[in-house]
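Researcher: Next entry in the queue.
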Amino acid sequence: MSSISLVKIKEDKGVTLVELMIALMMSSILIAALYRTFIGQQKTYTVQEQVVDMQQNVTVSIHRMMSEIRMAGFGNVNNALGLVGGVNGFTQVITPGANSVTIVGGFKQIRRDNGSPITVDSASGNTITLDYTPNSEEFNTEAKRFISIGGVESNKFQINGKVLTLDSGLKLNHAKGTPIFKIQAISYGLGLSDGKKVLQRNENTGGGAFAVAENIENVQFEYFDANGNPTGIPSNIRMVRVTVTARTDMSDPEFAGGDGYRRRQIASNIYIRNIGSYF
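Model: Structure for this entry, 279 residues:
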């Protein structure tokens, strides 16, 4: 008689509902923690990015202004300023304002398209012949026809190809190869662009102002004479103090700063070296 062995098969048990709920709860806590960490890091990155952009804005804006304000009067611009109407309506090297300033100077050396300078080929009487025909847009309006020859003599002119006919005769001898600088009246001040305050630069030649830095909340100009005393007399100005306040593009509700915007302020003293006349 054969015996039959009975094998008891043990069935695998599944998870209970309680175990499933505990696992889901723990997973939810872990995911929430990870999400919170990710959001925190993303917010920190966004804030840092905005602060960097703000600092770059205020630094770039004030450095460009510093460079051009420091050059105010370069090119012995007095003769051009003394013409009827001055340089596009401005008759002073510096026209001061509390929140804006206009400066006149030979800020730009005229150049060919490849970047090499355009210089004097010959000069006598009231005529200058250049060694290259300027770009057609360089002097295409009356507002752009103020120049300084060699940085020492200013005038206004009419142009025909390479030939410049000055409004008055030359007072100095200018050798072949003398550089030519364009005299400009450049204004800086606050304006609006897309509903935001921006620092604007205007060359006063009819093209209007354009933004050089965004989110500039305030700009202030103060003026001082050679002895460091405040002055509002243009001819006495020897130093300009510029204070620029920038803010972040977006408000941070969690930032304890009133309206939630982070701000940076930079102030700089700029000394004027070119006010005066050679003649």
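Model: The mean pLDDT is 86.
Researcher: Noted, moving on.
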